Amino acid sequence: MVKVGIVGGTGYTGVELLRLLANHPQARVDVITSRSEEGIQVADMFPNLRGHYDLAFTVPDVERLATCDVVFFATPHGVAMSMAPELVERGVRIIDLGADFRIKDIELWEKWYNLEHTCPDLVQKAVYGLPELNRDAIREGQLIGCAGCYPTAVQLGYQPLLANGLVDHRRLIADCKSGVTGAGRGANVGTLLAEASESIKAYGVPGHRHLPEIKQGLSGMAGRPVGLTFAPHLMPMIRGIHATLYSVLKDPVGPDLQTLFEEFYRDEPFVDVMPAGAHPETRSVKGSNMCRISVHQPQGEDTVVVLSAIDNLVKGASGQAVQVMNIMFDLPETTGLEQVALMP
Amino acid sequence: MVKVGIVGGTGYTGVELLRLLANHPQARVDVITSRSEEGIQVADMFPNLRGHYDLAFTVPDVERLATCDVVFFATPHGVAMSMAPELVERGVRIIDLGADFRIKDIELWEKWYNLEHTCPDLVQKAVYGLPELNRDAIREGQLIGCAGCYPTAVQLGYQPLLANGLVDHRRLIADCKSGVTGAGRGANVGTLLAEASESIKAYGVPGHRHLPEIKQGLSGMAGRPVGLTFAPHLMPMIRGIHATLYSVLKDPVGPDLQTLFEEFYRDEPFVDVMPAGAHPETRSVKGSNMCRISVHQPQGEDTVVVLSAIDNLVKGASGQAVQVMNIMFDLPETTGLEQVALMP
Amino acid sequence: MVKVGIVGGTGYTGVELLRLLANHPQARVDVITSRSEEGIQVADMFPNLRGHYDLAFTVPDVERLATCDVVFFATPHGVAMSMAPELVERGVRIIDLGADFRIKDIELWEKWYNLEHTCPDLVQKAVYGLPELNRDAIREGQLIGCAGCYPTAVQLGYQPLLANGLVDHRRLIADCKSGVTGAGRGANVGTLLAEASESIKAYGVPGHRHLPEIKQGLSGMAGRPVGLTFAPHLMPMIRGIHATLYSVLKDPVGPDLQTLFEEFYRDEPFVDVMPAGAHPETRSVKGSNMCRISVHQPQGEDTVVVLSAIDNLVKGASGQAVQVMNIMFDLPETTGLEQVALMP
Amino acid sequence: MVKVGIVGGTGYTGVELLRLLANHPQARVDVITSRSEEGIQVADMFPNLRGHYDLAFTVPDVERLATCDVVFFATPHGVAMSMAPELVERGVRIIDLGADFRIKDIELWEKWYNLEHTCPDLVQKAVYGLPELNRDAIREGQLIGCAGCYPTAVQLGYQPLLANGLVDHRRLIADCKSGVTGAGRGANVGTLLAEASESIKAYGVPGHRHLPEIKQGLSGMAGRPVGLTFAPHLMPMIRGIHATLYSVLKDPVGPDLQTLFEEFYRDEPFVDVMPAGAHPETRSVKGSNMCRISVHQPQGEDTVVVLSAIDNLVKGASGQAVQVMNIMFDLPETTGLEQVALMP
């Protein structure tokens, strides 16, 4: 039984970890921290957990967290890096759902996150947490910087094309659409139902923090720096990310893309290449850890369009973190992650 | 392993049965029927099931269904009564999610459903499927007419008051709010997103088919015919029923209602009496089989207000049917029904 | 041309006043105040107003406001009472959309609003702003305390019954459903899209600030203190209130209620009694100043159910305020309020 | 006073025409047809129109329609072409909101619409109805084929770039998002609230009927055939289209795009170029005839991203049709179209 600690349990990725771990047969949440909610039962804050947990929030405390086998950070950037060095030293394994350990280029990180990084050495030792890209390194890793939500959807969609050198790596366009939970549980006028429902908008077109993370990942796949335009959009829904990924085929009559994608992901339990002609709906992954992908070559011309759908809170965050934990602790990778998406 | 057949698998209660049974450790769906979708894989119709089922729809066939231990009817009224007699004769157990076997007064049933009942004898032998009311009879039953969605929310809310004779049974008011899946998966202008979102309305105030079912149940609890006003409302959401139940206390300074409710439902795994002062949200039961209830006595006066929330497709339909199956087959009642509600 | 000032223009009732007054042929907004947004153009804050206004927020200033013919307070309770005395003294007419001048019983007001009232004398001179109840007094009034959103829907629904003495005034039940704009534009976790959509809940069942206002109004209609249970519910939609109003007929075979309602509201431009059997949808009044009502007597028994639908931001707030202004300034009552509801 | 006829008044563009024309001071709807709803009052079908119209649906009849000055076809493709020749002959002016007269290449039209065109001659005489592209021709036109919803958003966004020859015309990508009213008012499982809310998906990526129309328009602007990838997406909202338009600048340090766009649309009453850095929300045009546009050049690189937002039922259909009518009848172009968008 893996003893789990969670730092920052009051946000959406925190409660989603609790949901997923409630029925995980090989893991048990021992510690959950929140400075503001100290002493409150998790089930009093999140009534969906009533009957599933007898666990109260405690103030973050390294001593206490060090009794865990693994600590998840479900926190905004900047928190994990402040506690990670001490926990790593004590041999605790760390899975950061935030951004502190994703980007290898410290200067780039500091520019986009507007913060000085306090443990750049650890960044270099950290493993990027996207199992479909990096499974072996995750297995051995002590500190994992889990892939972000947009980066997961985009990288899984582009990987077969870039890894096979099929498209022009300089002209990638990722038009992404996300539900509002991507913005977190903070009180915010912009994500009030009265503001965000019955409307859509782009945001961060001039620049978004996930851009350098995605470029780092795609450049790794391509073996050289890619050119990427990334346009995120806010959707009037709770959960879900849909990435529409455009690229230009070097050879429009090259290998059959459907077959290529199917073979590329044949053994992946959480990537579902849909039949030719399909369009994945985000609801088909709602509450599940699946990424559903389809690939199109409209009118047989040289533009390829990949559609990639995930639940941003599951495969884009907490489910992926549990998948990473399963890998790290040599559990079957799908343990606790077999939920069927809630549809309708 | 319970061998399950499902008649009518293309509606919302059908796909929800498939979702719940996909991870049920003691049941396996062997047969699923649909005349219109014969030969189609269930996962091609409902992509959330991809990877969980290798099962195709077949034309309804009594021979084939008779090989099952239990057959669920996830069909509109009128279908179950046409096939039940033959299946009953062959010893198959039946769980009808529709309305054919709920109402004992055949004449009343025929008036509200505008149809002649073809097996009135079976109605008398059928057991009403609401475990919190009727658990022992269900255990022995061969044919169960599961409680409807509104009737479940209303009866669970009123039961402690009526069974204890605390309120005026002649003046019950059930103001109920339901998500659109209550109207089924049929193509219908009124439940298009463009018609039903960003709006609410009452419907069926002059009379709704669930009225006689609810009155039958409440009258049973009260030991005499109750007077009930039932006003259903359509809500701009997919899942969920919220019943707001008004009644008049015979004695405003009688027993403490909070304690009474907690004790009444102490041993029920799927009824959660919330703390005093709470207001259950439907999302706190989304995708789960729980009914959450709170009880209020505003300003200490003689009106009691009970709030009762369920997921109409789970505790109001398919989850309840699985709970009934567990009881019938001597499985632990919560088997396969431990999902945590999806929140947010 | 009526010169208009608006205090507190950054909330939802403020921007709705701006929307309605943009095309009002006899009124012009001269001053709009907001301490936090001083100097900002209203159209920069609310892009729907681009091209309609060249007007910036200014700090509230009595001198400046005193140049207006009428000042609207689109503010939380407590603000209007702090500025009203001085403006009244200078002869400015005031329309308060907040709660400061609605309740005549100062002690009661102070209890529910948990605040000392600073100008109780003015309260006694103030006129309650619900034209269908109080039109003549409004015409002569200098200071109007506009009816709240729930109170408008409830009072218009009950008025024909209570004014005619047809129902038991001791047993009124108002089950009300409101869109989230009723909670205002403040940053608030509870009304985030991720929290409030795909869910419904009751709130304030033990007691809500609109209860004393509604009781005061209904008691006036009935000529004696009424007994009222008021249960508000939060709906996953932006705009709209639907009140479902229950009462007990003294005589179940009394006057035809449909005819009675139609005649009662025959000359009202903003109350639409729908045909017998109808159920008003809130979307049928979205963006319009109309209140649509239907009346039902289910199964001919002694309970009457009135359904009343308004747009909480229009007839429940800013539209009503404009209607009140039209009356005060002897303009045709419908001036600037002829918008057709946006449907779908 | 322009006498108006509407063929096909029971769909969303029909009721939206009625909403807009209800307060149009220079036009009056004399005839509205619907075969299925003959004799029904429009206000009985669409309760938002109660009090605004005393008009019943009639069976389509050329004699009757010929008494009108202008006839709008708010019909699926195929209807207008069956009645247009006779009306044109009688001198009636026609505004077709459908697709029959938009595409000059008959063969192409027949391929995409899978129907033989019955009056190809009229197509050649027809004028394309997008005033910002084609105002003078519209003024003189007798038969107008109004621009479709996606085509309007896309063409208005690309026009300044293509007309000035600034971008590579071979690599245009239009990622478009539409509310469900774009799919019409037909009963359809796919646009049920239970299917389409809390989810997004692409559709028609292999090919969509608006593709040839958009390509025709963009090619006209560019002066040569363009290459376009068009990916429409279904959004969980009622109204609104957001087009995200990608193209490659020939010269990344060319003219300032913000200034270029502002000047290009300086005199257009219904195109609003937003300030630099802005992201238009579809709700900022909800119910209004405005198209709001912003232009971005992320990180100063060579990709330009134009964001274009309209209400698909107004500027994308019925509002545009009224704008066209105003032009044809020498009325001020904004007559009846000054509604402020409903926000929130």
TrEMBL record, chains A, B, C, D:
Domain of life the protein comes from: Bacteria
Reaction equation(s) it catalyzes: N-acetyl-L-glutamate 5-semialdehyde + phosphate + NADP(+) = N-acetyl-L-glutamyl 5-phosphate + NADPH + H(+)
Entry annotated with the keyword RNA-binding: no
Domain Semialdehyde dehydrogenase NAD-binding span(s) in chain numbering: 3-141
Active site: residue positions: C149
Subcellular location(s) per record: Cytoplasm
GO biological process, one term: L-arginine biosynthetic process
Pathway: Amino-acid biosynthesis; L-arginine biosynthesis; N(2)-acetyl-L-ornithine from L-glutamate: step 3/4
Family: Belongs to the NAGSA dehydrogenase family. Type 1 subfamily.
Physiological role: Catalyzes the NADPH-dependent reduction of N-acetyl-5-glutamyl phosphate to yield N-acetyl-L-glutamate 5-semialdehyde.
Protein name: N-acetyl-gamma-glutamyl-phosphate reductase
Organism: Marinobacterium halophilum
Lineage of origin: Bacteria, Pseudomonadati, Pseudomonadota, Gammaproteobacteria, Oceanospirillales
Designated gene of the protein: argC
